[in-house]
Design a protein that fits this description.
Elements (H helix, E strand, L loop, with lengths): L3 H9 L4 H22 L3 H20 L11 H19 L4 H9 L2 H23 L3 H12 L4 H7 L5 H20 L4 H5 L1
Helix pairs in contact: 1-2, 2-3, 2-4, 3-4, 6-9, 7-9, 8-9
Length: 190
């Protein structure tokens, strides 16, 4: 494969074939990283990757990219991609479907086929027991009792539904962190 200096030099001198090298060299790693780290759909990760590659290209051609000793072209590409993903998530305001997917996107959903529903339910229960009582209540009321944020705020004596939403988001992140701590990347992408 071509090194970064070669690729950058070719792009600066109007040889867009190097853009294809960047694309093929980093696509697979970027998609895995984006889907795993930010829990976005593969299609979203592909769109972000394409946009990030184009931004890298424009930054190199327009002289906005400066080679740093500690930064590879790959890390520069991933950094641009990270900000595009964060913008995407902020733009979508972490939709309810995304949050539900985060809650379900744990090792347990991958084990559903092998262990069945009861094994998954047991493991979800184990995770719920690992978080604090308030979080457990918020998630249980929302996902199992199907209460609205307003109803949860009232039941748990939160100031308003926004406080309940914020608490639910923090609890989901905690559950996700615990779940991903129990499974390796290799298990998820084999």
């Amino acid at each position: 494969m071509q090194n970064d200096e070669f690729i950058i030099n070719n792009l600066k001198h109007g040889q867009p074939k190097s853009l294809e090298i960047i694309y093929q060299k980093h696509r697979k790693d970027f998609l895995r990283w984006a889907v795993y780290k930010y829990n976005i759909e593969t299609e979203q990760a592909e769109d972000v990757f394409s946009d990030a590659v184009i931004d890298v290209y424009h930054n190199i051609v327009n002289g906005r990219y400066t080679k740093n000793v500690n930064t590879t072209l790959k890390s520069y590409l991933f950094e641009i991609g990270k900000y595009k993903i964060l913008n995407l998530l902020n733009k979508n305001k972490m939709s309810e479907s995304h949050l539900k997917r985060i809650a379900l996107n744990t090792e347990y959903s991958y084990q559903l086929e092998q262990g069945g529903f009861f094994d998954m339910a047991k493991k979800v229960n184990e995770l719920l027991l690992m978080i604090d009582e308030k979080c457990r209540k918020v998630l249980t009321l929302f996902y199992f009792d199907n209460l609205s944020m307003e109803q949860i705020a009232e039941a748990l004596k939160f100031k308003n539904q926004d406080v309940a939403k914020n608490k639910k988001l923090k609890c989901l992140k905690r559950i996700q962190s615990l779940a991903f701590g129990r499974v390796s990347k290799e298990d998820m992408y084999d």
